[in-house]
Every structure is written in C-alpha cells, then in structure tokens.
User: Fold these one by one.
Assistant:
Number 1:
Amino acid sequence: MHERVLLIEDEPHIVEALSFLLTREGLSVSTHADGSNAAETAARLTPDLVILDVMLPGKSGFDILNEIRGTEGMADTPVLMLTAKGQSRDRAAAQAAGASMFMTKPFSNREIVANIKALLE
Amino acid sequence: MISFNVLVSICLLYVLGLFAVAYAAERWAETGRFAILRSPLIYTLSISVYCTAWTFYGAVGSAARNGLEFVAIYLGPTLVFVGWWWLLHKLVRIGRVQRITSIADLLSSRYGKSGGLAVLVTVLAVVGTTPYIALQLQSMTLSFAVFTTATGAPAPSPTVTAFYVAAGLAVFTIIFGTRNLDANERHHGVVTAIAVEAVVKLAALLSVGIFVVWGVASGPADIFARMDPELLQSSQVFNTRWLTLNFLSACAIICLPRMFQVIVVENANERHLATASWAFPLYLFLMSLFVLPIAIAGQSILAPDANPDLFVLTVPLDQGQQTLATLAFLGGFSSATSMVIVASIALSTMMSNHIVLPLWLRMNASRNPASDDVRDLLLRSRRLSIAVVVALGYVYFQFNGGTGALASIGLIAFLGVAQVLPALLGGLFWHSATRPAAIASICTGFFIWAYTLFIPSFGGAALMGPETLQSGPFGILWLAPQNLLGVGITDPLVHAVFWSLGLNTLVFISVSLLTTPSAIERLQSVQFINVFGQVSPRRGITRNTTIEDLLVLAQRILGREEAMTLFKAQARHQGKDSPLPDATNELIATLEREIAGSVGAAAAHAMMAQVTGGAEISFEDMIAVADETAQIMEYSARLETQSKELEQAAVQLRNANAKLTELGAQKDTFLSQVSHELRTPMTSIRTFSEILQDGDTLDPEQLNHFATIIHSESIRLTRLLDDILDLSFMENGRVQLNLETVPLHSIIDRALATTQAQANELGAVIRRNTTAEQVTLYTDPDRLSQVLINLVTNALKHCGTTPPEVSVLSGLHMGKLVITVADNGKGISEDDIDLIFEKFSKLSKKFTSGSAGLGLPISREIVKNLGGTLVYAGSSKGAVFRITLPLQAAETPVSA
C-alpha cells in the first residue's frame, strides 16, 4: 500500500519537482496550492505525511499547522515544513507549532527524500 | 541820588568782579598759588550761603514783627555746628569716601544705590527750592524798586527786573558751575566768589548796623531805649513756635541742597570743618548782631507802613546815606545771588546725575558710557538743568510774587527739604534702615508737607478751595489741612512740622522694622555707619565688624548651609562652644578665600573690606572686580554656547541613530525578502537539475520540460537580480537616465509592440488616442516604455475579463502630460491600494508579471526620476494607473 503524502505548496515548479521525486519513490502524492482550505483538504485526505510551505497565499503555514494538529487523528501525523526564508526564527516557530521537521529551500533531493522516509517509518 | 541806571551799572560791575574772582580762583587753584584759597576761611565763608536775602532783609523784618523770633534762624545752625559737629564730620567723611555729589546721591547710595530714591529726593529738592529761588528774585526786585522809588524815577516793572536778574544768574552759574566736569563736583571758582559775597553781605550789614547805632542813635543804650516795648512783649521766646524754628533751621543746615553742596560736596579738607565749627557760628553771630537795632531804628524813624523787610535799605536811604544804602543793596544782592548760584548748581547736579543720565543710558544701552558723548551730555544737561531751576523760580515768582512775608516762604522751603531728615539720620546711624522705609517716609512727609503747608501757603490755588482749607476736603473736618485730627495746634507751621515729620519718622521706623535690608544696603550701611573705622582689615582692625555681618555676607555668597558649616568649623577651631566664632583676622582671611572661590578674589577683597570696617575700595580694586566679573560672564557665556552646541549635536546624533536603526530594520526586511524571492527559483533549479543528474531514464519530452523549467527559472532569477539592483539605484537617485527628445507616440508604439504577443494570445483589445500622442517629450524613452510595458502587462494579466480591454490614453491636463493605462476588470479593492506599490508585497507580486513583486515599485521610481508621479486612480470599471509628467519636459505638439 502506497503511503499518501499531501504537498501544500504554491510554487508550481516546486510542486511538480516534489511530486515527481516522491512518486518515483513509490508514494502517493496529493497537492494543494493555496493557503485557504489547506487544513480541510488535509482533514479530508488524512495523509500519512504533510509537506507544508511556510509562505502561502491566503494563510500562513504556521496557522495551517495549528489547524492540522487540532484535527482529529492528525495530532501525530508527521509534518515537514519548508521555508525559503532560512531564518532560525522560522525554525523555532515551526518547532513550537509542532512541525516534525523543518527544511530550508533550496534543498537536496536525496536529503528531503531520506527525511520523508524517516518520518514515515 | 543814585539813579536806577547807576545802580544797575554797579550791579553789573559787581558781577563782573565776581567773574574775575571766580576765574582767577580757578586759575590759581590750578597753579597752586595763593594758599588762602584753600584755607578753611574760604570754606567757612562759603557756608554763609545759608544767609540768603531772606536772612539779610527778612531777619530785620522778622525782628520788627516778632521780636526775638529771628534769633532761632541763627541759633539752629549754630547749635548744629557747635553741638552736632560730629554729625557734620560724619557727613563730610562719607561724602569724601563715597564720592557723594548731592544729598540725593547720599541717600540713594546709602539705600542700595536706589535710582528711584534719588529721583524722589531730587524732585523734593526742586519743589522745596523753587519757592526759595523765587524769594531771592522777589527780594532783589523789591530792593531795586525801593531804590527807584527813592530816586523818583519811573519804577521798572518787577517782572522785567526779575527776568533780567534770573537770566543773569543763570548765565553766571552756567559759566562757572559747568566749566568742567570734576569727579568730586567741586567748584573752586564759584566757592571763592561765594566767599567774597559772604564778606560783602557781612560788611554791608555791619556797616548799616554801626551807622544805625552810632550814626542815627548815639550808641547801643540809646537805640535800645528807642525800642517799642511791644516788641519784646509780643515775642514769646522759648515757646513752641520758637523751638520749632530752631529745629527747622538746624535741619536746614544739613538737608538744604545748597548747604549740603557747600558743606559736604565742596569740602576739600576735613580739617576745614573744625575751623568752620567755630567760625561759622561767629559769622552768624555778627550777621545777627545789628538786626534788632536796625529793626528798632526802622520802626522809630520810618513811617509806620514801611515794609520792615526792607529796613536795611530804607533806613540808610531815609538818612540820605547813598553809599551806605548802595553797600546794603549789594549785600542783599550778594545774599540772593549766592543762594541762587549754589542752589542751582546743587540741583542741576542732582537732575543730570539722577534723572537725565539714567534716562539717556537706558535709551542708549548699547553706547559706550565712557565716550565723550556722555561728557557732552552731562555738561549740556547740567546747563539746561541750571536754566530750568532758575526758570522755575522765576515762574513761581511770577505767580506768587509779593504774597506773604519773605520769612514764611523760607520756612516752608525749610520744612520741605527737612523731610529727608529721618531717612538721612537713619541711614547714618541705624543698620536696619531700609530703602522701602526711606522712600515711604519721604513720600509721606512730602505729601503731608504739601497738604498742610505748601499748598495752603498760596491760598490753595487751584488745588484746594477755601472751604477745603477751612473745613477739610468734602467737609471732613478732621482732614482740614491746617488742623489734622483736630489736635488744635494753632500755628500752621508748628502743625505742619508736627504732622509731617512725625508721621515721616513713624513710617520710616515701622517700614524699616517690617522690611529686611538687601545685601547691598547691608554693605552700604556698614560703609556709612562705620565710616570712621577706616583701617585695612589686613592690619587687623575688626572692631567695627560684627560676626553677624560676616555671617550675612557669607550666607549671601556661599549659601546658608555652607556658611553655617564654615562658621561652626571655625568656632570649633577657636575652641568656642557657640556656633559663632570670633571675628578674628584669621577668620576674615579664611572667609575671604572661601568667598573668592565664588566671586573672584578682587570682588571678595572688596566685599570683605567693606564689611570689615569700610576700608576704602580703590579704583584698582573696582577695576579688578569688574574684570573678574566680565571674565566669569564671558566664561559662562562660552559654556552656555558649548552646552547648547552639545545639546544640538546630541539631538542630531539621536535622530541620525534612529534613522540608521530604521534603515537597518528596513534593510534586514529587504534582504530577508530578497533571500526568499531568490530561494524560490533556486529551489526549482536545484531540484530539477538533481533529477536530471540522477540519470533516470526520462522520456525526451519530460527531459525537455525539466530543462525548460530550469531555463525559465534562471531567467527569472536574473531578472529579479536586475530589478533589485535597478530599484536600489533608483531609490538612491543614482539612476542613469538617457534623456532625449522623442515623440510620445513612438514610446507607446514600442511598449505596445512588446506586449503585442501577449495581447494577441488573450485576444485583447488595446485602445489609444494617436492624435493626442503627437507630442514630443524630453525624457528617457527606454525607461518610460518600461513603465508602460509593466502597466499594460499587468492589465492584460490581471483584469480577469475576457477579452481584456486595455486603453492607453494620453492628454494634457493642467499643463502636464497625463497617460492613463486602464483595463475593464474589477480593479483593486480599496484596502489593497496602499500595498500595491510596496516592494515584494503579495499584491504587487500578484499584479506584477513575471517578477518578484518589484514591477510597480520600479515603475513608480522611474516616473519619479523622470520628474512625474505614478498613482493608482482606479474606478469601479477597472484598474486605472495614471502617469503624470511635467510639461516642461514635454514640448508642444508636433505639427502634422
């Protein structure tokens, strides 16, 4: 059974790249490009892992994370946060909000795949 | 018979003689010849200015009317010179030490250099002296008239006589009274002339007296046998009035401005006073010796209606003694002239020093007071003041001439000036006397004098009606001017003396007790009261210094606490139990050092010298004080300037720092935004390139797709970097503009050509008004078309309507070129309008094609650099951006 990953990211090229990578690793990838309704999508899909961008149009990644953590059955779902800002302030905020892992863009393909696999185990 | 003309000629010759004496005396004084001029004799004779025409003629009149009453006028001064010699000595010493120039100066100086007090005393002196000068003019006019009547010649108008006499006196006084400005205000020439006049009047009176006793009568026994027994009976010697007269004349010798002038100001040597103390009473004795015989002779041989005030003249005339009468006339003339001359000099000194000069200094504060201007001004004001004083006397004579007996006017003047007595004596002997007290007491006395005596003396004139005089103002009986509170003193003079000097003294004492002397008054009081304790404190004379004086001084300068601490420490050092140490030399030296720390050494020395027994402050001391003060003031002014500069610098630094902090924060935000914007395309590039590196078997189409993404993201990165640099340059105003004159339509052509493909793709309609585009612009065509491309692209991309309609319309408005770029979309909501020009804002990102949200900010900066504005002027029909460019850069439409 394929493990299901929900990718919440607004930059189309990055969505395309990550979808290709994860599909190639045998994961089932759903995408959501907007900040609004992202938590609802997550609640509906109940994915095994969420990849969440910090800067999204409409709503901040941290708010979405809070909503996901508040969703029934998703309190322990691994969430990998991505940010393009690369500031330690964001890392701390992400951990406080309950992110399982935090990665800075640009990232290494090998590294992100390894991290996702580790989170899924 | 001596004709009127001969008499006038004699007078003129006499005055010329006085001129010669005065001139010679000044020359001799300069060359140091004729020591007699500096002898006590001249000084004593000059004091005889006390004996005016009033005494010369009036004493006989007084004797004829009231018997021995006239003796009081001579007895008062005699008592002062004999009995109160030490008071005069103190006055003279103070005058010399303090360089006193007048009685107004003395009081002002004693009461803390008060200008107001000086003015008050000056006014009082002028008011009190004016009737007296009028009196002299009247006596001269009368004596002239007597001579003319005796010769049977037509009588000259008294007014004319008085006028010529007044004018002549003014000229003489001006010439000799203001020939030079002496710091000591001494007038050798005038004093010598006055002394000569004193001899003449004494000689005249003695001659007439001798003639009467041994020429008319056959000796003293005979003359007294002729005396009307009524004369002595009517005189009630030693009654209240007589005592009052004694008292008044004693006051007068101290307080009259002219007496102060000759006794104190003109005194060249204190030892002269010792001679004067017996010689002047002797002079007065000789002057009074024949008064009674002349009066008796006049009454016995002349008609009963003859004016006794003129017996000195009329008795010799009646006896056919022309020469003797002329001598008597000259005696009276001398008495009158000497009084007017000295009085006007004294008053002019007061008026110019205390009224004219302070006013001038106030009006010309910026002028250097050491310049010749002031000297000229002083001389001119002296001369003018003399003229004014004599003129006032003349005017008074004009209005009141002939009213009242001579003696009564003299007594009124005496009481007027006597109002300064309490303040004067208090100043000389009482440490607690204060300036407010002096002013209040003089004002009180002056007012009561005017109310009870001066104004009623000429029947109230316009100031008081007869009913007011009788029954008080508004019928209030107890306010009746000559019967205050109804105490029932019948003699108006005694009444006025009682009330004016009584209340004056009462006010002086009460106000002094209620007020505290200021520091300078305190210092001056020590200086005045201890004037004889003049030994340097260095040599250890501290007998005049109380420890309280030192403490007051120390507290003024060091502050209460510190002064007490210092004194307690000194007391302990001296082994005393009380908190106050003894005023030893050591203490004084210590205190001077402490004070020097606050006010400078010179000032400290000067102050200590003053407090510790009135050592004279030398000119050098004062200059040093002034220098130190100037230095301190300059230093403090410099400090103040520096502190202001520092304050300004601090403010500037604070502002700069705040600006830098803000700029730093802005820079951090900007860098963080740039980093974010760069990382996004870089992420795509890195990820796809790593996928390609993996060498997976990708189908060619996929391979091509990924390569295209990498390519486009690289271009996006480059453009982003270009934009950032561009914006940064433009914001710093360092953008390079390639300005040239181009037609507007060519710029719009170029912009629309670039967006043509995109427009075609969307099936968009683009509108423009080519007619209005026929304008040539002096601008940077590349930059302006960049702005237009940006705006058109935004419109096409974001208007959201199909098909998009974009209009690029040009026109002139208010002398400026206006280009609007409008679309047919929904426009931008009001909340977002403010954000669209922000760098990297989500909105600007949204509305800017293909870049990181820098399109609109860059466009706005470009237009700003071209001298115009770019604003959002949206309407409900769509987004509208309006570019306004100044017309001075745009030229008139090109003619087709």
Note: The first strand of chain A starts at residue 4 and ends at 8.
Number 2:
Amino acid sequence: MDYFIYLAQLSGIFIILAVSLNLINGICGQFSLGHAGFWAVGAYTGAAFTVFLDLPVPGFVNLFLSCGVSFIAAALAGLLIGVPCLRLRGDYLAIATLGFGEIIRIVIMNMDSVGGPRGFTDIPKLANIGWVYLWVVIIIVFVSNLLRGSHGRAIISIREDEIAAESMGIYTFKYKTLAFVIGAGFAGVAGTLYAHTQEFISPMGFTFMWSVIILLMIILGGLGSITGSVVGAIILTLLPEFLRFFGQTVSEWRMVIYSLLLISLMLARPGGIFGKHEFNVLKFLGIGKKEEANS
Amino acid sequence: MSSPILKIDSITMRFGGLVAVNRFSMELGSKDLVGVIGPNGAGKTTIFNMVTGHYEPTEGTVYLSGKNINGLRPAFITQSGIARTFQNIRLFKDLTVLDNIRLAAHYTVEYGLLANIFRTKKYHAEEKRVHDEAMELLKIFGLEDKKYHLAKNLPYGQQRRLEIARALATKPKVLLLDEPAAGMNPKETKDLTELIRWVRDKFQIAVLLIEHDMKLVMEVCERIYVVDHGELIAQGAPKDIQSNPKVIEAYLGTSETEETGPTPGEA
C-alpha cells in the first residue's frame, strides 16, 4: 500500500513538472531542454532551507515556506537563463537550455555545503500526498486561469506566429520570458516536494535524461494541453513500475517494452493523446456548454 | 493634403553589398490612400519592414506624427499606431477568429498578470470590454457568426478580411497592407477594393498598400509611388502614372496596355 501511495505522490510531482514544462514548450512554443536544471535548483534550495534554517515552525509550514523559497530561486535561475537564451529559436534554444541545465547540475556537484557528488542527505520527510496534490491543483488552476486571460493568449500567440504576434503589439520577448520564469518556478516547487519525499537528493538524479523524460510526458499527452500533460506524466511514471508485476520476463524487458509502447503510441497519435485540446469531463458526459469549446 | 502622419525620410536598406532600398522618401496624410507598386524584388516589402520595425533602416528616418520611430521594436511601433498585414497571410491559425481579434487588443488591456490569474473584478470588466470591441469589429466585417471557427478553416477571402480586421483592432493611425489581393479571384478582389476604401472612410485612417493588381491600385489609390530596383522612379496620381514612360518601361512591359490587360506578368 505504501508503495502505491509513494507512486501516486511521485506522479503528482511529475504532473507539476510536466505542466510547468508544457507552459514553456507546448503553450509558449519555446523548446527548452533544461527543465531538470530548474528542478534541481528547487530541490536543493528547498532542502537547504529546511535543513540549514530549521525554523521552529510546524513541518507543513516549513514545507510551504520552502516551496515558496524554491519557487523564487528557480524562477530567478529561469530569468538568468531565459534572458540570454530566449533570443534564440527552435533547436538553438534547445541546445542552449540543455547546456545551462547541465551547468546547474555541475555547479551543484561542486558545492560541498550541499554534499557535492555524495548528495544531500537527511532531508526531513515533510511532503505527503496531500501537499503534493495541493500544489498540483495550484499549478493547474494557475495555468488554466492564465490561458483564459489576455496574458495567456499573448503567450499562445507566440507559439502560433511570433512575427505576427510582434506585429500585433505584443512584446514577445517579455511574454516568452514570463512563461519561462513561471515554468521554471513551478519546476522548483516540484523539486522541493521531491526532496522532501525522497529524503535524499544527488546531482546524478537531475541529469539531462530527466529533461527528456519530462519532455516525453508532454509530447505523449499532447503539446499545449494541460490535461494531456497530467495524463502523460501519470502514464510515464507508472508504466515502468507496473511492468514489474508481469512476471520475470516482462520485468527484465520492461525498459524495452516501455520504449516500444511509446513508439507505437506516437505512431497512433502523432499529436499526442489529446493533441492541443483539453479533456473536459462535463463536455465528455454531454452536459457542458457547447460554446466555449475553444481552448 | 493634411499634415503628414507618416513621413519617410530617404531611408536606405543595405543587406551586405546589396542595396535593397535606396533613399526612398514619401509622406502620407492622415486620411490618404496611397499605393506603392513595382516589379518583384523592387524593395516594396523591405520598405514596409523598415516602417514597421522588422528591419532597422541603414540610413534615413521614419517619423510617425513627427516622432522618430527608428529602431523601435515592431511591437512598440504597432502600439504607437502602425498596423500591418502580411503578403502571405499570418493569422494565428489554430486560434479562433475571436481570439485573433482579441490578441490585437492585448496591449490595451489594463489588468496585470496577477489579476489575470486570480480573475479579479477588473479582469472581468476588461475581458468584457475586449470581447465587446472584438465582436463589434467582427460584425462590421461580417464575421461575427464565425467567431468560434478556427482561423485556418476560413475561406481564403475571409482570412484576408480577418487579417485586416485584426490589424484594425490594434487601433492604428496608419494601416499598411502588403499585397492584400494576392491569390484572390476577380470577385474577391472587387470586394476588397470596396473594403479598402470603406475602411479608410469608416475608421478615418491612412492606408498604404503594396499591390500587384493594377486594376485595384488604379481604382483605389489617390496617389501612387513606383519603385524599381530600390529606387523611387515615379510618383503621382494614377492617371499620370499610367502614362509615365519610365513606369511603363520598368513595370508594365512594352506592348500591353494596362487598363484592359490582365495583371502584369509576375502575379
């Protein structure tokens, strides 16, 4: 049972990561491969906050504060990286963010105060499934409210056509940076929650591969779709775990099966499970309003 | 002519060794309807790109209402009153017709990011204003029953109309149209001719257009500037331009008479 709760909690953390990356990649259209870097910044900032400061307050207050601190720290890192990088486009941006993500990891690796390559140990286990899903709700409400307003539309317009957006009086650089900073900030929160779930973090846990896996989640779910990111994050967190239960052979070959499943899913639905659309329970059941079918 | 709203003072654009536009000057009164014509590659779109800030002129200055707008980002030039359409339509294809218009009004929105996320009173008031203004504009352009259609699903002629409507939604003083009739059939072109004139009268703005369709240009423009190889070779009323030997040589070919003939060669 504990194992399933742990998996649900882990899924929640990856939902936060996927939705935040979706804001950058899917909604704003800026191809970032440095998300694990912001995740690491958040994890280490949050862990350092609770371990070194050790405020005399109840655990959950401490967790909430450290989430806030790590949001700010990761958002600052996002700003620092975003301002020079967001002048680039497409593949070039991907390479630049990838480089920065690795730089962050190497810097942490060489910081002795947080354990360096040995990792950061003895982090209190403050996060539980409730706090994780509280943040899941916060980020989903945040992003979907954002998209319903003018600022969100401005961010979407950059994905649609940057030149046209600029010609319509939208200062695209500002909104690209905004999306990048908010996305990085929430990745930082996910990092803190992760650190306080695992009780141990090490730089090797935030390699480039994790950026790719988070990217896979949002591509699988459908770039630009929040519900898609949620589903993608859950599938990609649970799939490799559940394949363990199908006997010795499947368990041994599970990473291969996992890859094959991914390939076949992308062949079947090249735009991701939901494409750019949102899954609306009310509409699915036929009780929703027809008109607001556009998001 | 009233005092010029847009003044282009001998702008030059060099790309390396290539002089795309050489010391081009023009003035545009606040309600003028002026055309820029010229063969392909003459530098017309480059002129547009300099006026709208997509390129910064190598030399020369562009003034909007007497203010130097050189080197401003396109977004800020649009905000100060120049809107444009594109030669190959650049709508937000996967967004609805309504969202396309609402985006153009984005810079007028007065609530901040936090108001957006917490959906405050001001947010709702402003969203309503933007929505109503957009709907009004769509009504004028006869697109209101298509407001929830995706822009890419509109017929070509309506996409052009939507692009013009979207440019107008930025509340410009000067509207630049880059080949609005490109790819249109004669019927759509005729409608467009009406539309352009009507837009100018209704919104009381200056319109500057680049066009290959001679019939449209001759019919709609009050003054015409002719560009060839980046240089201004003639300017004046449509009648004078039609009979200008330099223009005929550079642009209209040698044997055809432009009034009855089809659109010249490179359409």
Note: Residues 256-267 of chain B have pLDDT under 50 and may be disordered.
